[in-house]
Amino acid sequence: MSETRIDEIAAGIYRLSTFVPEIAAPAGFTFNQFLVEADEPLLFHCGPRRMFPSVAAALARVMPVDRLRWIGFGHVEADECGAMNEWLAAAPQAQVVQGGIGCMVSLNDMADRPPRALAEGEVIDLGGKRLRHLDTPQIPHGWDASLLFEETTGTLLCGDLFAHVGDGPALVRDDIVGPARAAEDMFGASALTPGTAAIIRRLAGLAPRTLAVMHGSSFAGDGAAALTELADDYARRLHQQLERMTG
Ligand SMILES: [Fe+2]
Ligand SMILES: [Fe+2]
């Protein structure tokens, strides 16, 4: 595991990235968290528990860790929220935010302090930044899956969507769908449901200018086009599976 690096990928949105060369070797794999700097700062993704010291030290280079007010993540898995209680301990004012399903199924029990359940479309005003909560069940996996959209910068905190291998630049402006397709071929991490493409097309309707990607490089450019292309790829995969099933 290499030292966590930090890059500002949009105004006041910092990507904390830790590269693990052993995962998906020889390319390796990154684990990224995003700090949304505001009067009430929010961290999206906690990172795995064992990565906490490195990620917390990186965050402390931007602001004191105990200033964190909100902690969000895409769904309950170790890389998304393994270090949740470590962050809650380090930041006494912080509260976990998640969708209703995630709170009911897991977080009311797992989080050391009660989480705040967000409704579909609910906006949290952070003071300088505004985060909209979007329920995205099974996107790309997990009944509890949800995402956040930062409205002032047009940044979609898109979790595992567009995940790809390698330790590329913090921010790219060229194709990210190709690398995401290759990773899907490798891992098969996405749940292919009749709702997959439709929900991703709905995200395209937000017309994000930045896509904050949890594994791999983030993207600046036409987010709607990238999301539409990704939705088309999932629709094609589902179609192929159904054709195989029905012969
Ligand atoms: Fe995941
Ligand atoms: Fe992940």
Q: What order do the SSEs take from the amino end to the carboxyl end, as H and E?
A: EEEEHEHHEHEEEEEEHHEEH
Arrangement of strands in the largest sheet: 1-2-3-4-5-6-7
Q: Report the β-strand fraction as a percent range.
A: 15-25%
Number of helices: 7
Residue stretches low in confidence (pLDDT < 50, at least 5 long) are none
Bound molecules: fe (ii) ion
> Helix fraction?
25-40%
Radius of gyration: 17 Å
Q: What this model shows, in words?
A:
The protein is 30% helix and 25% strand. The protein has 7 helices and 14 strands. The strands form 2 sheets. The protein has a 7-stranded mixed β-sheet with strand order 1-2-3-4-5-6-7. Strand 2 (13-20) and strand 3 form a beta hairpin. It binds fe (ii) ion (2 copies). One fe (ii) ion binds next to helix 2.
Describe how the helices and strands are arranged.
Elements: E1 5-10, E2 13-20, E3 29-36, E4 42-44, H1 52-60, E5 70-72, H2 78-81, H3 84-90, E6 95-99, H4 100-110, E7 116-118, E8 123-125, E9 130-135, E10 146-150, E11 155-157, E12 171-172, H5 177-187, H6 196-204, E13 210-212, E14 218-220, H7 223-246
Parallel strand pairs: 4-5, 5-6, 6-7, 11-13, 12-14
Antiparallel strand pairs: 1-2, 2-3, 3-4, 8-9, 9-10, 10-11, 13-14
The site of one fe (ii) ion has 5 residues, from loops.
Please describe the structure with a list of short key phrases separated by commas or semicolons:
247 residues; 7 helices; binds fe (ii) ion; 30% helix
What's this model, at a glance?
The chain has 247 residues and is an alpha/beta fold. It has helices at 52-60, 78-81, 84-90, 100-110, 177-187, 196-204, 223-246, and strands spanning 5-10, 13-20, 29-36, 42-44, 70-72, 95-99, 116-118, 123-125, 130-135, 146-150, 155-157, 171-172, 210-212, 218-220. The protein is globular and about 55 Å long.
